[in-house]
Backbone:
């Protein structure tokens, strides 16, 4: 069984660890790191990567920041990338994986300088543990980790119904928020405007409304032996079990999921599980198809810029919830 040792890790725990092929076509949930690193931790790779020539370790911290590092399982003919030994020691940093042209004399430990918003040309700072003689001046072309591996949970509290309603009205929308008993237009063009305006509401970012909760998405692998941190099976093209802690919201609220269209394999998240108190006992609810059959492209500062669909039970009150107990959501079924 392959393994790596992680000596240093930026970001905020807990960290969800995935093992992927180098193109990220296949990713397998591997483990969860609960605390800060250092101290160092050892990660054991899933068995399906035992014969792979190389793998990519992807880590997502609690804020949604992404860290990646290539792991060479065998020693190949020298290439422009750095070749670690069978059990490498890596230091993961977010978002950008530059590909320098380096001929190492021995196996180095690479520390990559993070940049959440990359500039066109990035010169990495490489601090090897031993002498490395570069063959040429390093001028890498940055490789940017995909920005949208997440689903987003928007919690709209009744305590803020006046604020969201007044804002939406001031923007010329007839959608005043779910707490004001309205929903986005069924017209595709107006739906685009309604939802873009809704997501742009400053209350999602300035603390007036609950902080948006992010959920990791199992958008590649279907492996019956893979489980999330709560012990629930990981289901292909569904987001994994995500907690809303007890009293995270101090008001009855509407719960709405925004999910990138690319994460559901061209289908819809037609059902979402809801559990109360127990993260392993769920009731499955069908989403409102009049909303999820429309999509909208978001360009703004609130969440990642891509195309989303909207998933909620509105006007069915199943997702109109109090939060005096911990809540658990989990994607349970996609389809057309």
Residues:
């Amino acid at each position: 069984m392959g393994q790596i040792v992680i000596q240093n890790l930026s970001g905020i725990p807990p960290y969800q660890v995935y093992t992927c092929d180098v193109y990220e076509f296949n990713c397998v949930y591997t483990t969860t790191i609960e605390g800060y690193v250092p101290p160092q931790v050892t990660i054991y790779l899933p068995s399906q990567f035992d014969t792979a020539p190389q793998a990519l370790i992807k880590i997502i911290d609690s804020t949604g920041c992404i860290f990646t590092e290539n792991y060479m399982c065998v020693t190949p003919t020298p290439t422009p990338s750095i070749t670690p030994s069978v059990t490498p020691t890596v230091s993961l940093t977010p978002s950008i994986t530059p590909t320098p042209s380096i001929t190492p004399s021995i196996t180095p430990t690479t520390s990559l300088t993070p940049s959440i918003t990359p500039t066109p040309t990035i010169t990495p700072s490489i601090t090897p543990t031993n002498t490395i003689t570069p063959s040429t001046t390093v001028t890498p072309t940055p490789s940017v980790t995909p920005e949208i591996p997440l689903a987003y949970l928007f919690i709209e509290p009744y305590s803020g119904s006046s604020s969201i309603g007044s804002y939406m009205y001031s923007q010329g929308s007839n959608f005043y928020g779910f707490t004001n008993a309205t929903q986005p237009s069924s017209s595709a063009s107006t739906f685009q405007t309604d939802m873009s305006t809704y997501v742009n509401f400053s209350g999602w970012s300035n603390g007036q409304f609950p902080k948006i909760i992010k959920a990791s998405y199992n958008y590649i692998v279907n492996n019956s032996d893979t489980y999330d941190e709560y012990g629930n099976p990981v289901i292909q093209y569904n987001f994994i079990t995500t907690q809303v802690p007890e009293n995270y919201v101090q008001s009855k609220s509407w719960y709405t999921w925004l999910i990138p269209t690319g994460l559901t394999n061209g289908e819809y998240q037609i059902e979402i599980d809801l559990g109360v108190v127990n993260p392993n006992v769920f009731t499955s609810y069908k989403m409102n198809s009049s909303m999820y059959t429309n999509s909208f492209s978001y360009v703004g500062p609130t969440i990642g810029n891509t195309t989303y669909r909207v998933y909620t039970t509105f006007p069915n009150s199943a997702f109109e919830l109090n939060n005096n107990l911990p809540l658990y959501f989990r994607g349970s079924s996609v389809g057309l």
Remarks:
- The chain is about 10% helix and 30% strand.
